[in-house]
Amino acid sequence: MQKKLRITNIEGTANIVNSCIKFKVEKLCHISSIATMDLALGDEKISENYTWHPEKTHSDYAISKYGAEIEVWRGTQEGLPAVIVNPGVIIGPGFWDSGSGQLFKKIDEGLKYHFPKTTGFVGVQDVSRASITLMDSAIENEQFILVSENLSFKTILEWVAESLQKKAPKTALKPWMIFIGWMYQSTANLLWGAKKQLSKNDYKSLFMHSYYSNEKIIEKTGFSFTPVKNVILETGALFKTEKKL
């Protein structure tokens, strides 16, 4: 998985940057992730003024996305105008078997547990609108966090359940429960080559609370985010419609 992520995110981004430079593309918008961002010393929320701390534990995904950002910044040094956006967990319809779409599918199937993690969330349409806004602006070679609200997964799952008219999960997962699951899948991978769904770093991150500032894009462009609950209710309605079809 680590090798595939690096090839896709780092080498893939490098190829795009090189092509943009070669063909004199006017401006590049790179979609990164809040996973690349750490809290700066003295700050209460993670902002664009972040510092990457290589000594800290990061997921394979975060490392590969940070490497991709380095390729974009390299491109700006070679004359390619660019903006980088770092969305939070993106909520939106259409992909129910991957990413945040699985939250709707799992709740529909009767999910019983939630995990005590807080992070930033944003609607997929906001990510699109913000990216277009930045591309149409004179802003170049800057980075912007795209987070509508910082929320717990407990709250998110309650809203998803409300949107689907299902029961919300009541029981919080404990670290030992996730650890046992991680140990089981690691053993299965070692013995039978079963696919690993959760890395050790991912397991640790499920119990972290991270808060992100969206002030920069609001101040620089006047951008207005859609409330996350509204996004979830709209997405849930689309999920129910697609399920009927």
Can you give a write-up of this model?
The protein has 245 residues and is an alpha/beta fold. It has one domain: NAD(P)-binding Rossmann-like Domain (Rossmann fold). Helices cover 49% and strands 13% of the residues. It is built from 9 helices and 8 strands. It has helices at residues 2-22, 60-77, 101-109, 124-136, 153-164, 175-192, 200-205, 215-221, 228-244, and strands spanning 28-31, 82-87, 89-91, 113-114, 118-123, 142-146, 149-152, 171-172. A 3-stranded parallel beta sheet has the order 1-2-6, with helices on both faces. Strand 1, helix 2 and strand 2 (82-87) form a beta-alpha-beta unit. The longest helix is centred in the N-terminal third of the chain and has 21 residues, at 2-22. The radius of gyration is 19 Å and the shape is globular. The protein starts with a helix and ends with a helix. The model is unreliable at 186-192 (pLDDT under 50).
Write the layout of secondary structure elements.
Blueprint (H helix, E strand, L loop, with lengths): L1 H21 L5 E4 L28 H18 L4 E6 L1 E3 L9 H9 L3 E2 L3 E6 H13 L5 E5 L2 E4 H12 L6 E2 L2 H18 L7 H6 L9 H7 L6 H17 L1
Parallel strand pairs: 1-2, 2-6, 3-5, 4-8
Antiparallel strand pairs: 5-7
Helix pairs in contact: 1-2, 3-5, 5-9
